[in-house]
Specification:
By secondary structure, this protein is mainly alpha-helical. It has 8 helices and 4 strands. The strands form 2 sheets. The protein has a two-stranded antiparallel ribbon.
Amino acid sequence: MLSSPRLRFKWLVGCCGNSDTGFISIVVIVQHYFKLKPLRDSRSVILLDEGYANWLWTHGYIMEDVAYGIALAVTDERATGRLYNITEPQTRTMLDFIHAIGEQLNWKGMIIQVPYGHLPDELGIPLHTEQNIIVESIRIREELGYREAFSFEEVQEIFRWNDLVR
């Protein structure tokens, strides 16, 4: 655990990242979980587990936004001993998120939701989606004045970067 007098990190990279692969792990996670490769390849159909499609998973998308939130917490005395979530203001289903990215990439295909357990392992998402992961960031917004530097629409634009989606 990394810590300072006022700040402790339980996870620095995330549940699927590690100190050896860091950024590369995050890119792989983004490509796989957000279905970026099929979108980028202009596949006409994406098969998606229905549990995953309707799963709510709160994110903090942009490193600058997360870094800004951390900087606020580290430099503001009011944050001493407080815990803050740095997340998007509204949690979207994965289906909504993938559609939004597809729209930004001018993808014209369709997503077909497949009943749980009917997708081959290589097309599925190895997550248990029975429980949503919804995290609110109200405290850091109200107490420290946190706001995203990038809107969700601007986040979509980032997925155009070739080095991220290829």
